[in-house]
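Before any further analysis, backbone shapes were mapped to integers, which produced the following:

***
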Amino acid sequence: MLVAPWPGVTRSVIAPGQVAAGTGVTVTFPESEWQQLVAVSFRLVTSAAVATRRPAVAITDGSGVTLVTVPSSITSAASLTTDFSFAFGVGASSGASGTSVSESLPPLPIAEGDSLVISVAAIDVADQISRVRITLLQRPVRE
């Protein structure tokens, strides 16, 4: 599927497996001639434990040093299900009662070995991140 005006560049979606409750997500990007992060989306279901959770998306380099962190401008309280989307070219917005949140991502080319990290400040052991999707524009390595 061609989704960019450049030959050989296509959209690629990474969907990591099930995430353990009470933890964040780290996904290492695959080898590619060229790739750019376009969007990250996930669902956060919070437990009944009272706390204000603030999700964030970060990109780290191959040695684990953070290149950029984008925290959500909207927090999630106890006993809520919220869908978060971080995407290039969108402005911050919130849906009804904070059930849907959009945040802007900076344009950042991704290098092999970089990782995407989804974390949640004040995460409870029973909070659950699911439905993680990472969308890239990619020109795969040619053999």
